[in-house]
Amino acid sequence: MKKFSVTLLALGVMSAGNVSVADDKSLTIGTNNWAENIAVANMWKILLEEEHDYDIELSDVGKSVLYSGLASGDFDLSLEIWLPTTDAPFLEPYRDRIDVHDVWYRGTGLGLVVPSYADIDSIAELKEQAERYEYQGGPSILGIDSGAAIAGLTDDVISAYDLPFDQINSSGPAMMAALDGAYSREEPMVVTLWSPHWAFAEYDLKYLEDPKGIYGDNEDIYWMARPGLDEDDPWLTSVLNAWHMDDDSLGTLMARIEETGDPEEGARDWINDNRDLVDSWIDDASG
User: Fold this and answer.
1) 210-229 as b/e, with b when 16 or more CB fall inside 10 Å?
2) CB distance 230 to 237 below 8 Å
3) Which of 165, 218, 220, 275 lies deepest, with the highest CB count within 10 Å?
4) 41: number of CA atoms within 13 Å, CB side?
């Protein structure tokens, strides 16, 4: 991994003071395969490389590797940690060796999702309707990578609600392809999903109520970094702390990437269409 030089380059005095960035502007960003993570990682790769002369490597890894890699300095930063519940178990072993920075998205959702035409409203009702949700030979909940936090929480849900279901783990795209097929035939299907996600713009979906609260309350998304990044590159830290997105801005970014089928192309198009918002993050950091 390429690490920052600790030598800083003064860029000059601006209206709000001195702004400094690292001499060696090489960064490795740890990513995972969630749709919003892919979207914002490629957005920042393009912004930093094409407009601020950074050299960015995106490294797609599992959750456990991501956190251990940040703690050991193999990655410089990662753009997504859900707190206070979802990602807390991944952070806990490295709490003193990972710097959690500012919130950039508020009010996430997480849980079991069905098409709105499904005659069900609560996770508890799945037990009585199990036969309607058969997939590959038995009642099933379609999920993503088994190492994801939502997969572990879903195992807890199956146990807590005594559901006669198996969780089928695969990739996010594979799960969405199965949901798309069921939706087009207006068949029941239950999947693990989260907000923000482009699926809620493409399909009429609903979360099943979770009266036991296994999935927790709405959370916020922060970015995190290896220790010392704020000292090595205070300008970048300020920019990322100034970064904020909401359902509209993040949803349109993910939708553009899904439409183009290319994360970099979609992110670049979105940046061009949202120049005022993007510039505000840079201006806020500089000011």
Assistant:
1) beeebbbeebebbbbbbeeb
2) yes
3) 165
4) 25
Domains of the chain: residue spans and CATH: 8-106+219-286 (3.40.190.10), 109-207 (3.40.190.100)
**Mean pLDDT across the chain:** 90
Determine which helix (DSSP H) or strand (DSSP E) holds 52, and give its type and residue range: helix 35-52
Q: Record the pTM.
A: 0.73
d(CA 32, CA 62) in angstroms, rounded, equals 6
- Token match 């899904």: residue? 258
Predicted local confidence at residue 10, as pLDDT: 31
Cα 99 to Cα 4: distance, rounded to the nearest angstrom: 16
Answer with the residue of higher pLDDT: 20 or 76: 76
Kindly write down the DSSP assignment for every residue of 177-244, as one continuous string. Answer: HHHHHHHHTT----EEEEES-THHHHS-EEEPB-TT-TT-S--EEEEEE-TTHHHH-HHHHHHHHH--
Tokens at 227, concatenated: 């220790």
Q: What is the pLDDT of residues 254-266, one digit of tens each?
A: 989 989 999 999 9
Q: How far apart are CA 115 and CA 198, in angstroms?
A: 14
Cα distance between residue 194 and residue 212, in whole Å: 18
Q: Which residue has the higher pLDDT, 13 or 81?
A: 81
> What integer pLDDT is reported at residue 247 of this predicted model?
84
CA atoms within a 13 Å half-sphere pointing along the CA-CB vector of 167 = 22
Q: How far is CA 88 from CA 43, 156, 185, 222, in A?
A: 26, 16, 38, 12
DSSP string, 79-114: EEEEETTTTHHHHGGGTTTSEEEEEEEE--EEEEEE
Question: Is the CB of residue 67 less than 8 Å from the CB of residue 61?
Answer: no
pLDDT at 216: 85
Report pLDDT for 198: 83
Express as a percent the part of the chain with pLDDT over 70.
91
